[in-house]
Amino acid sequence: MATDSDGEIELEYERDDKPPLPTSLLLGLQHVAVMIVPATAVAFIVAGAVGLSAGDTAYIVQMVLLFSGVATIVQAYTVGPVGAKLPIVMGTSFTFVGAASSIGASYGLAAVFGAILVTGFVVEGLVGWQFKRIEPFFPPLVTGLVVVIIGLYLVPVGMDYVAGGVGAENYGSLTNLGLASLVLGIAVLLNLFTTGVTRLLSVLVGIVVGYATATALGVVDFAPVFQASWFAVPQPGKFGFAFEPVPIITFAFLFLVSAMETVGDMSSITAAEGRTPTHEEFRGGLFTDGLLSSLGSLAGTFPVTSFSQNAGIVNFTGVMSRHVVGVGGLILALLGLSPKVGAVVTTIPSAVFGGAVLLMVGMVAASGARLIFLHTQLDRRNMVIMAVSLGLGLGVATRPDALSGLPAAAETFFGQPVILTALTALVLNTFVPGEQSPLFDADPDETPAEAMGITSSDD
């Protein structure tokens, strides 16, 4: 176990401390408030892309909250080897949005949930078990590029929501643009010019104000809320299961990417103690990612993984108590048992969500860029890897028809921007000599060819 104390911050509450119950409730609510918007946004975006009804969308939102809460509790307290005993808040990840949307539209949600069921624990369980051997292949250059492309290729999705949603009769209307601008403006101003809880809850405040404004303008339909019941339990197999090779391969690779994100978040959390996670913590955390994602698919929810913004709260507040996060997980689980909560989320106009989604996906891309710039030397080798990886990823994102000549299965797989970017970065970083290559080391003054022993015929 690495116990280097460099970088340790002054903790208000340490990992195993139990703050008073009122304090724990408030701190737990803060964690919930920070993650509930992006977590439910994932469900909202995929449901919109697949064309689900308001009722089915509300159900998926409900399941997202329930399984996010259960996974958070397991991370805090563990069940056997599953869980890290760390303050890790779990929720649905933007990593899977593109694949779930396109595969759901092409193959149906049954294929999405079948792929998650098969690949969740198999892939992340294997990663957790063999983590020491796999880690060198995913340095900051590779993981950073993956995070960047996740944010960038979702920008058009955010803009569609800003305009009112694809197919909306009032697409691009002044009302929609005004609501989205209001949410975005409030969130940015509070984030940049305030401190403390106000800054941490800036996105949520923006959405609340935008929602209230939309209600006053009469563009919110509350019928789904009145029709929803107060209490309901998961419905296993609600959307069915189908096991198609291409979706399974696609989600297997995305779970590998998600595992690396979780590794980064766990390292960020333990940095508050001035150390890196132990092998047992890594293994337990990754097991939770995979197992709860597979179990969640049975009820109709998308994969759960660690949330970076909540890892940031731990470092920002100095509150590392896993019991606080456990309280937050309990709150999420209770909210997930009430369909009315999911119904309320579905009544939020697309434009209101759009202001928040556009900000969130932009921040995802910015955080990936920060990861690269902080840990990667921008020499010629790494710049070429970045250029090729992002060029191909954005290329298929903006011009998917360019792959129409490929077999259908290959078009679906390579048409995923995250997969194409990650594969390109992984292959180039592995086989081109350089500081972050797991196979070759290169002297800073050497070219990749020289590092591999390839010399010019003129020498």
UniProtKB/TrEMBL annotation:
Q: Which InterPro entries match?
A: NCS2, UacT-like, Xan_ur_permease
Q: Which domain of life is it from?
A: Archaea
Q: What keywords are assigned to this protein?
A: Cell membrane, Membrane, Transmembrane, Transmembrane helix, Transport
Pfam families referenced in this protein's UniProt entry, alphabetically:
Xan_ur_permease
Q: Where are the transmembrane segments?
A: 25-52, 58-79, 109-129, 141-159, 171-193, 200-219, 239-257, 324-345, 351-373
Please report the record's description of how this protein sits within the membrane: Multi-pass membrane protein
Q: What is its main location?
A: membrane
Kindly list the GO molecular function terms attached to this UniProt entry: xanthine transmembrane transporter activity
GO cellular component terms listed in the entry, alphabetical order: plasma membrane
Subcellular localization(s) per the UniProt record = Cell membrane
Residue numbers spanned by region Disordered:
438-459
Entry's PANTHER family?
A: PURINE PERMEASE C1399.01C-RELATED (PTHR42810), URIC ACID TRANSPORTER UACT (PTHR42810:SF4)
Q: Do you know which NCBIfam families this protein is assigned to?
A: ncs2 (TIGR00801), NCS2_1 (NF037981), pbuX (TIGR03173)
Protein family (similarity comment): Belongs to the nucleobase:cation symporter-2 (NCS2) (TC 2.A.40) family.
| Protein name as it appears in the record | Purine permease
Instruction: State the organism's lineage.
Output: Archaea, Methanobacteriati, Methanobacteriota, Stenosarchaea group, Halobacteria
